[in-house]
Specification:
By secondary structure, the protein is an alpha+beta fold. The chain has 2 domains: about 1-50, no CATH class; about 60-123, no CATH class. About 40% of the residues lie in helices and about 25% in strands. It has 5 helices and 4 strands. It has a two-stranded antiparallel ribbon. It has a two-stranded antiparallel ribbon with strand order 3-4. A hairpin with an 8-residue loop joins strand 3 and strand 4.
């Protein structure tokens, strides 16, 4: 049976709206997109059953962090956007990257800026 519903969920105390359009019962992994009037932004929901997460031994938060670290590693997200999407502060996000053996991108320009801010001049 095809069915649609709109609801709310909370991530770290922030309320978010979602739309599910699906045949029931849900398969173990489903992706649904929504292009509605939710803050006039395009939204996408990935629905993964608790049983599926349990089968792969991941919590919802760990799954989100895995996805975000992957996108950061593939240069699809900056450090700032990635850590915000993961809901982590900078240090905690860097620790998560290290756990997954993802290198932190640090350019020559970043080094020059840091040296300048520290008052260090290389001759």
């Amino acid at each position: 049976m095809e069915r649609s519903s709109v609801g709310w969920y909370s991530v770290e105390g922030k309320r978010r709206q979602f739309l599910i359009t699906s045949a029931y019962p849900l398969p173990p992994f489903s992706v649904f997109s929504y292009e509605g009037d939710i803050n006039r932004l395009h939204s996408m929901a990935i629905i993964i059953t608790k049983d599926t997460l349990a089968d792969i031994n991941l919590s919802e938060k760990e799954f989100l962090i895995d996805i975000v670290c992957y996108l950061y590693d593939k240069k699809r997200l900056s450090m700032g956007k990635a850590r915000k999407l993961a809901g982590l502060n900078l240090i905690d996000f860097q620790k998560e990257l290290a756990k997954r053996e993802v290198n932190i991108r640090y350019s020559d320009t970043d080094l020059d800026t840091d040296l300048k801010n520290l008052g260090i001049e290389l001759s």
